[in-house]
Amino acid sequence: MGEFELINHYFAAAPCAQGGEGVALGIGDDCALLDLPPGEQLAVSTDTLVAGVHFPAVCDPRLLGQRSLAVAVSDLAAMGAEAIGFTLALTLPEVGPTWLEAYADGLSRMAQRCRISLIGGDTTRGPLSITVTVFGRVPAGQALRRSGARPGDLLCVGGTLGKAAGALALVLGERQAPAEQAEPLLAHYWSPLPQLELGQRLRGLATSALDISDGLLADCGHIAKASAVALEVNLAQVPVSPALEAFLGREGAVKAALTGGDDYVLAFTLPADALAALAGCEVHVVGRVVAGQGVTLRDPQGLDITPVQRGYQHFRETP
Ligand code: ADP
Ligand code: MG
Q1: Which spans in the chain are helix H?
Q2: Which of 74, 137, 195, 248 could form a disulfide with 264 if both were Cys (CB 3.0 to 4.6 A apart)?
Q3: What is the pLDDT of residues 45-89, one digit of tens each?
Q4: Nearest residue to 188 via CA among 63, 297, 310, 73
């Protein structure tokens, strides 16, 4: 199968590539064309997943299809944007019809959940690597940024944390767990659900937001820096799921929640009186914003117990 047949058969014909709101022209020309309503801004973000680095080289392609799109769409959620379309740059070692079929199916399933359309891409041969670029729209000036947190604000997260980090040992086959523990963790690793609705609800309420991809403490550091404030996280308030706690024990679960990656849950700050407007959304208060800089973890007695290693980095800072 040649490059163009492959694109047509597996991607242009996929359910997720049949256009949608905001897509004036999809796959097939030199560029796709998007319509943006007056008064809205385009939100754009790219994520690359490399085999053996971001996912095991041998894995279920359907799950990989879901995950590769979800992690990218999560950035739109973090900006309070609505999804429009995405491009897919796929580098493949070989053309395996079974792999492509399943991958495109997983991609389409996640696309349907996020209401986003495949609008183009690039297909090349080489070691397996997947780059997804997402496009979304947000009313001008209303995107959620990292830079507006103010002393006095609450620090919140949109769900329990650490499930994907807990799942990693299962994904890599290093550990096993009974189904009632393993399933919720693996589900979160392979198909995290981008919190698009929560992000949109946060517009006009949150003073800062991001999606947690490198661990709560590490990502809170980005808000602290961009906003020139300090964030305090209260250990006792960090939410972990029962499945994670059963699998790793309380201490292990909390460690995964604080420093583990791949959660794709939103973290945000807002004034306490804005909380009521989020009724119906899963929101956990985990700390607060104070004057100063950096992120501090506090135990129930208020003692500073901030760990040295706060999250995952591909390139470590030189000492
Ligand atoms: P060009 O050479 O002009 O960049 P290509 O030959 O790479 O175009 O691709 C032809 C069309 O197929 C373009 O519309 C492109 O966006 C689309 N396309 C290529 N690869 C993919 C893919 N993996 N998924 C979706 N669309 C793709
Ligand atoms: Mg071209």
Answers
A1: 3-6, 61-78, 97-114, 163-171, 179-190, 196-202, 216-227, 242-259
A2: 74
A3: 999 999 999 999 889 999 999 999 999 999 999 999 999 999 999
A4: 63
**In the structure, what pLDDT confidence band is assigned to residue 124 with cuts at 50, 70 and 90?**
very high
Closest atom, ligand 1, to C-alpha of 31: 14
* pTM of this structure: 0.94
Could you tell me if 199 and 209 are in contact, meaning their C-beta atoms sit under 8 angstroms apart? yes
Residue of the CA atom closest to atom 2 of ligand 1 = 30
Neighbours of 31 (CB within 10 A): 9
DSSP assignment string, 181-220: HHHHHHHHHH-----HHHHHHHTTT-SEEEEESS-HHHHH
Atom of ligand 1 nearest to the CA of 118: 25
* Pocket-testing residue among 4, 27, 68, ligand 1, by greatest number of atoms within 8 A of Cβ: 27
